[in-house]
C-alpha cells in the first residue's frame, strides 16, 4: 500500500484529502506545519508528499529544500492558492515534482498523484541499489552477492525488498501481510511469514541481519 503524507494547516482540507485518499486505498499521514512535515518525512519515508506552500512556521519551499538537501528524493506535489507563473517556477525549482492550485478537483489531484508515483517507480526500477555486500537490480528483480545471483523465489524477493525499503524500522506481521498478499486472511493463523523469513536468512550473507523483535515483527539491519 502506497503511503502519502499530506501537509496543510487547513484542517478541513486535511480531513477531506485524508478521507478521499483512504477511499482510494492509500495509507495516509498528515502534518499541519513544516517542521512536523520534515520530521514525518524522515521517519516514515512516504511514497509521496502533498505539500501546501503556505504554512505557519516554515513554508513549503523551505520544507522542499530541506528534504532535498538531505537527499530525500520523495515525489512532492505542491498545493497552494498562488497562481502566478513565478510561484509555480519557484515551487518546481526548489525540487517539487508537480504543482496544483487551490481550489482543485480531487480527480485531477489523484491523476497527478498516480503520474508522480509512476515516474518515481520507473526511476527506482532503473537504479542499481547497494546495501552492504548486496547489489540490487530492481528492474530485473535480482540481487547479487559478490557478483553471484542469490536464488530467491518471487515471494522471498518481494519480502526482502519490503524489509529493505523499511531498513532500520520494525515491520510487523500485519504490515508484511498487507504489503505482500492480497488474500491476507489465509495467513492469519499460519507460519508462512516465519518460514519465508527463515528461508531469507539462510540465503543472505552474514553481514545482512533480519532480527526478530518479539511480539512486534522483524527488522532488517
> Could you give me the name of the CATH homologous superfamily of the largest domain?
Response regulator
> Which blocks of ≥5 consecutive residues have pLDDT under 50?
none
H/E series: EHEHEHEHEHEEEEHEHHEE
> What count of domains describes the coordinates?
2
CATH class of the largest domain: Alpha Beta
> Mean of residue pLDDT?
85
Label the CATH architecture of the largest domain.
Answer: 3-Layer(aba) Sandwich
Class based on secondary structure composition and strand pairing:
alpha/beta
**Gap between N and C termini:** 22 Å
| Biggest beta-sheet profile | 5 strands, parallel
Strand order of the largest sheet: 2-1-3-4-5
Number of helices: 8
Shape: elongated
Structure commentary:
The chain is an alpha/beta fold and 221 residues long. The chain has 2 domains: 3-125, Rossmann fold; 129-220, Arc Repressor Mutant, subunit A, CATH 1.10.10. Helices cover 43% and strands 21% of the residues. The protein is built from 8 helices and 12 strands. A 5-stranded parallel β-sheet has the order 2-1-3-4-5, with helices on both faces. Strands 6-7-8-9 form a 4-stranded antiparallel β-sheet, with no helix packed on it. A hairpin with a 2-residue loop joins strand 6 (129-131) and strand 7. The two termini are 22 Å apart.
Amino acid at each position: 500500500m502506497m503511503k502519502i503524507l499530506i501537509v496543510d494547516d487547513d484542517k478541513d482540507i486535511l480531513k477531506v484529502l485524508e478521507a478521499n485518499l483512504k477511499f482510494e486505498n492509500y495509507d495516509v499521514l498528515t502534518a499541519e506545519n513544516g517542521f512536523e512535515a520534515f520530521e514525518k518525512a524522515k521517519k516514515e519515508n512516504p511514497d509521496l508528499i502533498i505539500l501546501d506552500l503556505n504554512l505557519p512556521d516554515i513554508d513549503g519551499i523551505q520544507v522542499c529544500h530541506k528534504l532535498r538537501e538531505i537527499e530525500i528524493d520523495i515525489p512532492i506535489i505542491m498545493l497552494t492558492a498562488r497562481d502566478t507563473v513565478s510561484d509555480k517556477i519557484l515551487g518546481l525549482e526548489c525540487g517539487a515534482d508537480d504543482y496544483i492550485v487551490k481550489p482543485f478537483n480531487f480527480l485531477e489531484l489523484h491523476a497527478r498523484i498516480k503520474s508522480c508515483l509512476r515516474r518515481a517507480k520507473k526511476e527506482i526500477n532503473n537504479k542499481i541499489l547497494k546495501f552492504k555486500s548486496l547489489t540490487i537490480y530492481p528492474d530485473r528483480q535480482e540481487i547479487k552477492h559478490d557478483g553471484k545471483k542469490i536464488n530467491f523465489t518471487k515471494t522471498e524477493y518481494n519480502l526482502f525488498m519490503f524489509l529493505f525499503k523499511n531498513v532500520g524500522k520494525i515491520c510487523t506481521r500485519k504490515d508484511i501481510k498487507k504489503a505482500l498478499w492480497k488474500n491476507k486472511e489465509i495467513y492469519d493463523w499460519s507460519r508462512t511469514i516465519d518460514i519465508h523469513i527463515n528461508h531469507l536468512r539462510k540465503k543472505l550473507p552474514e553481514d545482512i541481519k533480519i532480527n526478530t523483535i518479539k511480539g512486534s515483527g522483524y527488522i532488517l539491519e
